Amino acid sequence: MTLSFSQEPKARADTAASLGQRTATGSPMIQVAQLDKIFEGGFHALKNVSLEIQRGEIFALLGPNGAGKTTLISVICGLVRASSGSVRVDGHDNVSDYRQARAMIGLVPQELTNEAFTTVWDTVSFSRGLFGKPKNPAHIENVLRALTLWEKRDNRLLQLSGGMKRRVLIAKALAHEPKVLFLDEPTAGVDVELRREMWEVVRQLRDQGVTIILTTHYIEEAEEMADRIGVILGGELVLVEEKAALMRQLGRKELTLHLDQALDDVPAALAGHDLALMEDGHALVYTYDVTQQEEGTGIAGLLADLEATGIRVKDLHTRQSSLEEIFVSLVRERA
Q1: Rounded CA gap, 302 and 286, in Å?
Q2: What pTM was computed for the model?
Q3: Which residues belong to CATH 3.40.50.300 in the chain?
Q4: Burial level of 163, CB count in 10 A (0-12/13-18/19+)?
Q5: Would you say 171 and 144 are in contact if contact means Cβ atoms under 8 Å apart?
Q6: What GO molecular function annotations does the UniProt record carry, in alphabetical order (predicted)?
């Protein structure tokens, strides 16, 4: 499946270094400055949020329910008016130059709001017309084929499964050939196989120059696709970092030592290494900071002490913290 847009195609950039090469020559696609949103009743949904999103990147916004993810997207898209601060999309202010800014954006909302009795073809074509774009059946066909909707083009939306309805929302967002695509929980309620197919569509869009911003509850989704990660908690953007750098800075590694003979407890000679006895005494688990250089991890000293105590190791392996573990740790720290 290949999507084709009017923008110049861009080569795949799977590393942070190549992402930097792509984005260094131009201004950010989205610029958010000192954004606040206070709803009636005094609820402070966004607190001094500033953020720049580069052209052609996939940016994942993580946060628990009520953290402000959907509010931030709604403000950027011009659906909700900020209490203070500014948003620019490809240089266009989203208040004073609303039509130009909004025309740059495709939005896939979290809720399934499709018109039940409209056909797939008609609802996607209508979405294109809403932005003043001339009819382009070839583009609509291309989008529907890429999203595996072509065979369903004459079906009414009420005849579709939840996963197919989710794809129709993406097709509608792509109908007017946007440069920016917001995906608010794009794979909620979608089975694993369909989710991975949709990930591939998102990657194709990114490779052709479309800037992708997604919110998700699926940590694996951000870990699989994102170039950068933002974490929002209580309306505050508490962290923005390249995914690989985030996992290096905040991740932990576990060294598991599988023992030749089981231990009843950790020997006193090893007490200074903060070891945990696991697997009914058949394994020792040592946790260390991945940002430390090898000589600073304590592993060399641990192995020397193990040898001195006569404990024999028959196997060992390491495991790095997942993005989910890092996220949970951040939430706990802010609680």
Answers
A1: 9
A2: 0.72
A3: 16-104+178-247
A4: middle
A5: yes
A6: ATP binding; ATP hydrolysis activity
